[in-house]
Design a protein that fits this description.
Elements: E1 2-7, E2 18-22, E3 61-63, E4 67-74, E5 84-93, H1 122-130, H2 166-170, E6 181-187, H3 193-199, E7 206-210, H4 213-219, H5 230-234, E8 237-238, E9 241-242, E10 246-250, E11 259-262, E12 280-285, E13 292-304, H6 339-344, E14 354-355, E15 363-366, E16 376-381, E17 385-388, E18 399-405, H7 411-414, E19 421-423, E20 426-430, E21 433-439, E22 463-464, E23 484-485, H8 496-503, H9 507-518, E24 538-545, E25 549-554, E26 567-573
Parallel strand pairs: 1-15, 3-17, 6-11, 18-21, 20-26, 23-25
Antiparallel strand pairs: 2-4, 4-12, 5-6, 5-13, 7-10, 8-9, 13-16, 13-17, 14-15, 18-19, 21-24, 22-25, 25-26
Signal peptide: 1-16
Region (Disordered): 440-459
Keywords: Signal
Length: 578
């Protein structure tokens, strides 16, 4: 039989990525000044392209009850017929969480070594590497190295990445306890929402076999495997000695079930826009009562094909050989007369099968199939941020977060990260709402990346745009008759006399506008022209918008017409008219 040297079908699950753009997703990056991530095993398994992610900046903070726009790019489709998709948003807060100071992967039992970055703590990984893996999972023809929860179809070699548990990473909802708290599930199949919400660890407790941590630290290198059921747990011994194993309930987080909604549409093979030409976002209303100085956000992107029934395919379809293929029956799917004919024609679920599409031709075509990636999970996580209680003066008000995404460089230099923009780019609020304006950046971008100001630096500011040019009496175009202050098409900022005249700014408001433009405390010198003397982090604090209208603004440093645009708008509507 001849074997043609081309691919019949480029299966979209071979290479895929997920990148959080706001808050800044790390993709395992810390503070490197190169384009590649220095260590993609530093904190977690992303499965992403190593050029993604943003350097750590000063910690951001968000108020309880405020709305944070989570923005991301996933390379392959959601809400589309080409792949099944779930996007899972979670967060975790703990005193031990840290970004760290080194890009090396944390070593065993180093919870207190603050030089290493850490999300999950050592005990989480310790139980993972000593707990029996789920024996009922479909592995296709992947041969796992051992029988503990470090080894999965996607991680057959049991590779360690931070203190993440590979089995917990790859599957949701997970059947053991997890430190991660669910925010939302965005799915192609909303009929599964009841299942996701009922099985969430937010609301449902989990049981596990628990052994004293000191005992585990003593024996874990001997590759012990702890049972995953009550009877075997209570009889468990190590080298003939009882170690006091107890079948223990881990209470649920005691939070509401995650929101479960239809996933936003995105196209295949494109890290970027959804419907309408914008990045997909989820507006997270940060719960009350969870204030903590050290929190982190996690997003996972689960995708699978329709080549087999993934929800009802289990270990009974596995095989012990990576040459025979799995036991998935493709006979009925492709209407062959018998299994022998299907196998002879190459219709076997295995790595890179050669299929005979035309029975009357002595030719086969190679399929780019990797059974470890049908389906597959990609991931990104934020750097550490803080959740704060509201001050008394903001107790009962609505707060929206307005941030900056992206990093220095042109599109080719920063990809698959993005260039600068405001998030949200268009923010719609009501009168008397507050907007918390805040951003951070890095001084360790690659020094030859394009941009203005001192090489390698991120800087941002906000300045009102030039007056509108519409004649008096012209309706407010798409803004429902609202008065328009400035416009997207302009590239000169409005000078302060016009700003104060149009919005009736007081001395206090004038000072705020000056701070946003010059990044107080300013150092008035030549380098201030490009904001070089300012810090990469800036916090304006919550500002109240009491006047109805549309306010356009720009960043003077990064807005370079024909090269890149960094502009935004806030649409303020009269709350009393609702």
């Amino acid at each position: 039989m001849k074997r043609l040297g081309f691919i019949l079908c480029c299966v979209v699950l071979t290479h895929g990525d997920l990148y959080i753009t706001n808050p800044r997703g790390s993709n395992n990056r810390l503070n490197g000044n190169g384009r590649e991530v220095r260590n993609n095993k530093r904190l977690f398994d992303s499965q992403n392209n190593n050029r993604g992610g943003y350097n750590v900046g000063d910690p951001m903070y968000y108020y309880e009850g405020s709305t944070l726009s989570i923005e991301w790019a996933n390379q392959h489709s959601c809400a589309d017929q080409n792949a099944n998709c779930e996007l899972i948003l979670q967060y975790m807060c703990d005193d031990k969480i840290r970004d760290g100071r080194t890009t090396r992967t944390i070593r065993d039992n180093q919870d207190r070594n603050t030089g290493f970055g850490m999300h999950e703590e050592w005990q989480h990984y310790l139980y993972c590497r000593t707990r029996r893996r789920n024996q009922g999972l479909f592995l296709a023809d992947q041969n796992l190295g051992r029988n503990d929860a470090r080894y999965t179809r996607q991680n057959a070699g049991g590779t360690k990445r931070g203190y993440e548990c590979p089995e917990e990473r790859d599957y949701y909802p997970y059947w053991h306890h997890s430190p991660w708290k669910d925010i939302a599930v965005l799915t192609n199949d909303v009929e599964r929402c009841d299942y996701y919400q009922q099985e969430s660890f937010n609301v449902k407790s989990r049981w596990s076999c628990v052994i004293d941590r000191n005992q585990l630290n003593r024996y874990y290198r001997r590759n012990i495997v702890i049972p995953d059921n009550k009877e075997d747990c209570e009889n468990f011994k190590i080298r003939g000695r009882s170690v006091g194993a107890q079948w223990t309930e881990f209470p649920a987080h005691g939070l509401p079930p995650p929101q479960c909604i239809k996933a936003p549409w995105s196209r295949d093979n494109h890290n970027g826009n959804g419907i309408g030409g914008n990045f997909n976002t989820y507006d997270w209303v940060i719960p009350e009562g969870i204030a903590h100085e050290k929190c982190v956000l996690r997003m996972r992107y689960n995708i699978s094909t329709n080549d087999y029934d993934s929800w009802n395919t289990d270990a009974s379809s596995n095989t012990d050989s990576d040459t025979d293929g799995s036991k998935i029956d493709l006979l009925k799917t492709f209407n062959f007369p018998d299994q022998e004919t299907a196998e002879a024609r190459g219709y076997v679920f295995q790595n890179n099968p050669d299929v005979e599409v035309f029975p009357d031709l002595d030719v086969k075509l190679a399929l780019a199939i990797n059974t470890a990636q049908f389906g597959r999970t990609f991931q990104d996580r934020s750097h550490v941020f803080e959740i704060r209680q509201r001050p008394a003066e903001l107790k009962d008000v609505t707060i929206h977060n307005l941030n900056v995404r992206g990093k220095r460089g042109n599109n080719q230099q920063v990809y698959p990260a993005v260039e600068y923009d405001f998030v949200p780019n268009t923010l719609e609020i009501n009168t008397n709402d507050f907007v918390h304006i805040q951003w951070t950046g890095s001084d360790r971008n690659p020094r030859n990346n394009a941009g203005n100001g001192r090489r390698g630096t991120d800087r941002n500011n906000m300045v009102m745009l030039k007056n509108k040019v519409y004649p008096e009496g012209t309706p407010g175009l798409a803004y429902g008759g609202l008065d328009v202050l400035g416009q997207y098409g302009a590239n000169y900022p409005m000078h302060l006399d016009n700003v104060t005249r149009l919005i009736g700014a007081s001395t206090e408001t004038r000072a705020v506008l000056q701070k946003m433009a010059l990044l107080a405390p300013p150092r008035y010198s030549g380098s201030m022209v490009l904001l070089d003397n300012a810090k990469a982090y800036y916090d304006v604090g919550p500002l109240q918008f009491a006047k109805e209208g549309v306010f356009h603004f720009m960043c003077t440093r990064n807005n370079a017409f024909t090269n890149r645009s960094q502009k935004g708008r806030i649409i303020v509507r009269d709350a009393s008219s609702k």
